[in-house]
Amino acid sequence: MIAVVFLLLLLAVAIFAAATGGQAVPVAEILGLTGVFLLFFGAGVYIAAVLGLLGILIGLTFSDRPWWAFAGQTLWGPSSNFVLVAVPLFLLMGEILLRAGLSDRLYRALNVWLNRLPGGLLHTNIVSCAVFSAISGSSVATAATMGSVALPYFNNSAYSQRMVLGSLAAGGALGNLIPPGITFIIYGLITETSVGALYIAALLPSILVTGLFILVILAHGWTHPLPRPERLPLALKLKALLDLVPTLLLMLLVLGSIYAGFATPTEAAALGVVGAAAFAAIEGKLSFRLLNASAEATARNTALLGLIIFGAYLLNYLLTAINVPQTLAGFIGGLPLPPWAIMACILALYLALGTFMEGFSMIITTVPVVFPIVTALGYDPIWFGVMVTMLVEIAQISPPDGTVMYVLQGMRPKPGPITDVFAGVMPFLAAYLLAVVLMMIWPGIALWLPKVMG
Amino acid sequence: MSGTEPGLLRGARALRGAVAWLAAGMAYLAGWNYVACALFITGDVVGRQFGYSSAATIEVTGYMLAAGIAWGLAHTLARRAHIRVDVWVNRLPLGLRAVLHLVSLLLLGSFAVFAAWAALELVDESLLFDAHDNSALRVPLVIPQGIWTFGILAFCVMIAVLALESVLSLLFGRAEELDRLLGSRTIDDEAAEALEAVEMAREGTAP
Amino acid sequence: QAPAALPPGPKVNVVAVTQPLPTQPQFTRVDVPVLREGLAQRSGGRIEVQLSTHAERNLSGTELVRLVRSGQADIAAATLTTLSGDVPILDGVDLAGLAPDIALAKRIAEAMLPVVNRDLERFGARLMVIYPFPAQVVFCRAGFTSLADLRGRKVRTFGNSLVDFFTALGAQPVSIGFPEVYSALERGVVDCAITGTGSGVAARWPEVTTHVSNLPVSWALAGYMVNVAWWNRLDPQVRAMIEGALREVNEKQWELGAAATRDGLDCAIGNAAACHIHTLSTRPMTEVPATPADQAALREILEKTVLPGFVRRCGARCGEVFNQVIAPVAGVRFGG
Ligand code: NA
Ligand code: NA
């Protein structure tokens, strides 16, 4: 609802600007298109179809060129782009690891170390999600994997169900922020920014967000104390560390191969797949059935993203052909507002869109339009990439629509209303937003490491 | 209820089942193609250390991605996994909801037909140019683009048979079946899948 | 002769997509002042050029002939080797080692313009201008004194003739997408990479490499195409004025190509006094001067490897065209 109000406000500003600017802006057509767009969304039309058909309508309305004669090339370009190859590879790696049972061992190992803190097992939820994120590039995969492992531990426990679900959702929303991440790859592709630099820039912000989450749980733990479990002997705790080794090795393989000059970020994803399969083989789990199921899931999730890319690129081609991004960038850049205020508006727009849009579709439809504005305002592309990723992650856990929350809701052993998830995620959402504000005030949180390492 | 099921609807369902089966086959191929892709790139990275590189990795893996996306489209639709914004539609009464499902499918269909037409035109243009890529293999573009186009065409066929079955369901007053056929995956579907995967991970492990 | 002014008449909107990036001097110093501002001013506002770059239009550069053919753009510019997948003969204008200096590159380009247009016009496009980017030179992250030192090193290349060239040198061509080259050089995924002197500086390669050769391996020749149907439909006076502007573009791009080649090197090695077009490198590089042995090796590889490779890909007819048109200018014949 916030989003609709916000969009209408934006439209009003655009009309006002057009009226005072004296230029002939086709207001009726723009209004009509916005109406069609909203109607489509309300009717539950497929996102890809909304984007694609909107593109076709814009072409028919505004373009005097035979744009359809270039549509095949417009769809083929991104479909066959090497940089995007990393996306199915990261998905495949996650699917194999999930089925090989890495996540269970990870959770148990961390649990031994964290369960005596105030807030207990809830910390394990966050930290295990964070560690898993360092090998997986997808938030939904992170939440689904760690959620399915963690939820049984909370059966018949005294923990607040809301906090359990909230912490897992929040942990899942680290999946893309902690490198490697699919959002960064897409952002890098659209803006021609170095994915490697984005990964480095995301390190401190992701530590910041994880730290804030832990503070949220500590606060909850102090106000809702639970009996502590027995202290475990150190030998047992050290032995548990062994279970972390495969995860650390994979992290080393994926990120290490990039920084050691062995592979580019895209290629590192392929190494990750082979590493994950090797790990499954060591566990004695590598089978045709495992690979077959992982392959099918990867094909399905890649096709889902691919179809949205089709729609988004067609829309984007037509918007660019009629000069919308450039005009918009010029208009917003010329507003009598300081850059930070415009940036705050942009971030608010992402926040609003995020309440009802899926993160990936959001980034691919908005970044091409917003990016020229951001650079015109003098903001750093790397910093903005991290900000956008954080906002996409926030979108995943902002009610009422967020895939991560839906997946968790579906995995609850004991049924309950989805509002439990909504309520549980709220304190974490606030912490995430605080991190965004801190990044806005101190951009160095993202930019310092790339500068030092570059 | 099933005893009175009209033959026409049964036929349409059988047809949809057959197409969905073929689509699933294509999706498995698409998935294994990503496995091959990972091996190919890994081979290139490792080979580079020993002075060997295919000099066509970028292009060929790009084609593998394109084929993978296109060949997975139909199956993804059959599994109801393509993303829709359905916060509002799922709260509507069944009758209205069923109609909107069909409208959504038809709109998707028109976009898919446009995409398929555009893809065919692209292949045609590549034939006219006798176009090759700039890699060392000089792959004729008609081959990867043709494979890609075939996937999009299969997607159109899947939409067509789904639409046929939906229209018949609607005509015979079976809105519920249509809802089950086209409604978004419920949360239970998503969860069942994740749990199934975790189940696979637990197999053979001592409890 | 181009008219100095236009009589009043209907407005002409021209869509032009030129150059890979909006920051390149080829765009800011030539396209913007001549095509966008110059035409608008001289035509009294009648001709309005909507100018953008490949990056802004989400294009990779290989599809520009199709862009013009389908009427999405009236004028488009792209490097010839990237277009050669669609029109193979374009590769022959800019083979590795063909033109050791820019004057010869220009003479070859002028001789080939009408010839390649016979092929291009079948697709409804016509090349109006062929122009150079700064000389394509080798940047390495470790020292070298001659081309022979590159043996065994991993070199990021693009396009068939450069792949053939580095293979013949005994180097190992690696294919990596341009956005990933910076970090590939930084981390040592590749040892060397080839690009224009100025382009390398603009992509901040001096931060991740130490040595740069001044031997032009090729020129990344590029061309401005027009859609033939659109061109023929234009009001003759408007057409004459645009043609005049394209002639001016031609002159300025060749001047820029020569100036930017040296400027890029000066910026790379930290020679602030001579660095005007590009930005000065914060980490000065070492310039590796070309030796007579390098020149000889370049010529030999061209004759033995690069040229036969081109004819193999493009067909026997291209060999004949090469011998008729380029051989008299360049002094190299296909088939001896
Ligand atoms: Na991640
Ligand atoms: Na959301």
Largest sheet of chain A: none
First-residue to last-residue Cα separation of chain C: 42 Å
Q: Average pLDDT across residues of chain C?
A: 91
Largest interface: A-B, 90 and 84 residues
Rg of chain A (C-alpha, Å)? 23 Å
Strand content of chain A: under 5%
Distance between the termini of chain A: 43 Å
Point out poorly predicted stretches of chain C.
Answer: none
Helix content of chain A: over 70%
Q: How are the elements arranged and paired?
A:
The complex is a heterotrimer of chains A (454), B (207) and C (336).
Chain A: H1 2-21, H2 27-42, H3 47-62, H4 71-79, H5 86-100, H6 102-114, H7 121-133, H8 139-150, H9 161-172, H10 182-191, H11 195-223, H12 234-241, H13 245-259, H14 265-282, H15 288-321, H16 324-333, H17 339-354, H18 359-376, H19 381-396, H20 403-411, H21 419-441, H22 444-453
Chain B: H1 7-49, H2 57-78, H3 94-129, H4 142-171, H5 175-182, H6 187-202
Helix pairs in contact in B: 1-2, 1-4, 2-4, 3-4, 3-5, 4-5
Chain C: E1 12-17, H1 25-42, E2 47-52, H2 64-69, E3 75-79, H3 80-83, H4 102-120, E4 125-131, E5 136-140, E6 154-156, H5 160-169, E7 172-174, H6 178-187, E8 192-196, H7 197-202, E9 211-213, E10 222-227, H8 228-233, H9 236-268, E11 286-288, H10 292-314, H11 316-330
Parallel strand pairs in C: 1-2, 1-3, 6-7, 6-8, 9-11
Antiparallel strand pairs in C: 3-10, 4-10, 5-8, 5-9
Helix pairs in contact in C: 1-9, 4-11, 5-10, 10-11
Features:
heterotrimer, A: 454 residues, mainly alpha, 22 helices, B: 207 residues, 6 helices, globular, binds sodium ion
General description of the model:
The complex is a heterotrimer of chains A (454), B (207) and C (336). Chain A is mainly alpha-helical and 454 residues long. Chain A has 22 helices and no strands. Chain A has helices at 2-21, 27-42, 47-62, 71-79, 86-100, 102-114, 121-133, 139-150, 161-172, 182-191, 195-223, 234-241, 245-259, 265-282, 288-321, 324-333, 339-354, 359-376, 381-396, 403-411, 419-441, 444-453. In chain A, helix 9 (161-172) packs across helix 20 (403-411). The model of chain A has no long low-confidence stretch (mean pLDDT 81). Chain B is mainly alpha-helical and 207 residues long. With 336 residues, chain C is α/β, with parallel strands linked by helices. Chain C contains eleven helices and eleven strands. Chain C has helices at 25-42, 64-69, 80-83, 102-120, 160-169, 178-187, 197-202, 228-233, 236-268, 292-314, 316-330, and strands at 12-17, 47-52, 75-79, 125-131, 136-140, 154-156, 172-174, 192-196, 211-213, 222-227, 286-288. In chain C, the strands form two sheets. A six-stranded mixed β-sheet of chain C has the order 7-6-8-5-9-11. In chain C, helix 5 packs across helix 10. Chain C starts with 11 loop residues before the first strand and ends in a 6-residue tail after the last helix. Classes of the chains: A mainly alpha (454), B mainly alpha (207), C alpha/beta (336). Chains in contact: A-B, A-C, B-C. Chains A and B meet through helix 2, helix 3, helix 4, helix 5 and helix 6 of A and helix 1, helix 2, helix 3, helix 4 and helix 6 of B. The site of one sodium ion has 6 residues of chain A, from loops.
